[in-house]
Design a protein that fits this description.
This protein is of the alpha/beta class. 40% of the residues lie in helices and 17% in strands. It binds NADP nicotinamide-adenine-dinucleotide phosphate and ligand G4F. The site of NADP nicotinamide-adenine-dinucleotide phosphate has 26 residues, from helix 1 and strand 5.
Amino acid sequence: MTKTALITGVTGQDGSYLSEFLLDKGYEVHGIIRRSSVDYRERIAHLEGTPHFHLHYADMSDSMSLVKLVGKVQPDEIYNLAAQSHVQVSFDAPEFTADVDAVGVLRILEAVRTNHLEKTCKIYQASTSELYGKVEEVPQSETTPFHPYSPYAVAKLYGYWIIKEYREAYDMFCCSGILFNHESERRGETFVTRKITLAAARIAQGKQDRLYLGNLDSLRDWGYAKDYVECMWLILQHETPEDFVIATGVQHSVREFATLAFRHAGIELRWEGEGIEEKGIVTNVQGDNVQCTKGDVVVRVSPDFYRPTDVVNLLGDPSKAKRELGWNPQSTSFEQLVELMVAHDMKKVAADDAAAEIRKVNLAEFLEKGIDK
Ligand code: NAP
Ligand code: G4F
């Protein structure tokens, strides 16, 4: 029997990989999109027009649109990935973040109940390691207490608990994947990893002078998004509805990520100074085409990228997912992840046509001035 999946957040990093994964498994895939005045469907453009992939307008802040869509699609599985997913932006737009990331989850659950699908439709909720926030233990597992530390995390905590509540109150098959940071060539350009890999590529190719970052000491457990979407599916295929931590179990700092990314772009860095005075200075370049020289300061710290409260020590314990889902947390290593992201962005930056390049240079200037987070 062909299964039908509904994905909220289908245009995002994870939504695009999950769509590919489910289409490969023979699913009928439906995704929710929002109206926008610009083209934002780049990540799923290659899927549009294929027979088993369908897009519908709806919005996480619009209950009626969700009720109607769930009724029309009659999904066997819902993957609720839609969110205002940028932690720093959640300090600027906390109410919108709460509406979409917290109440949005409730709207999905109620859309399923309103359509009397609670006994047949399974729901995956995109929970997050940000729930651990100001961490109470390292590494973090399914039993670690939560201590959310941003408006984003507080909203996601509501999502986590309402999923658990509906599981217990109405016997629904709904679960949270508590996913640690996962990155890719499709990662949004203002998350720290992608900001770094794009800037390293632009700096190596002479299209940007400098990268401005915030807290270089922040520690993350970074995995590859393509590996993580498999877990979302595995969680819904598990015999019983349960929550799972999905992580690699390996931790690195933002500084380590930047050092390695610049190395793959042909630039060796050394770090000098502390806090706001810290700088990344070129010590060596590899390759004739690298457009910077020894002594150039290519990374600086800007307080614009500091957060009012920052989560600084995330490290996941994926033992349960390994044991019960048979998932391999290390199929892509940190080193492979950085390499593949830089290789992608080196090609992308080189291939950008003149018009796009003007936009990118403008964006780079915005990033340097700290306007774009
Ligand atoms: P992303 O690239 O930012 O994608 C977010 C998606 O949500 C986009 O498709 C976006 O649509 C959609 N969306 C936002 N507001 C919406 C609304 N009001 N109505 C309908 N759709 C809306 O995020 P991601 O990295 O793929 O992450 C997927 C999910 O996992 C998110 O819930 C995120 O919070 C969570 N998560 C991510 C990570 C990670 O490291 N990536 C880790 C843990 C949890 P537009 O394209 O129209 O903006
Ligand atoms: O890349 P980030 O913006 O990701 P963050 O805040 O960890 O959130 C991401 O992962 C969460 C899972 O833990 C998801 F739930 C969430 O949706 C999102 O996908 O920042 C990572 C770290 C932070 O500590 C930040 O302070 O990098 C630090 N950082 C340092 N300089 C920076 C920068 N972050 C950004 N975005 N930009 C900087 O210039």
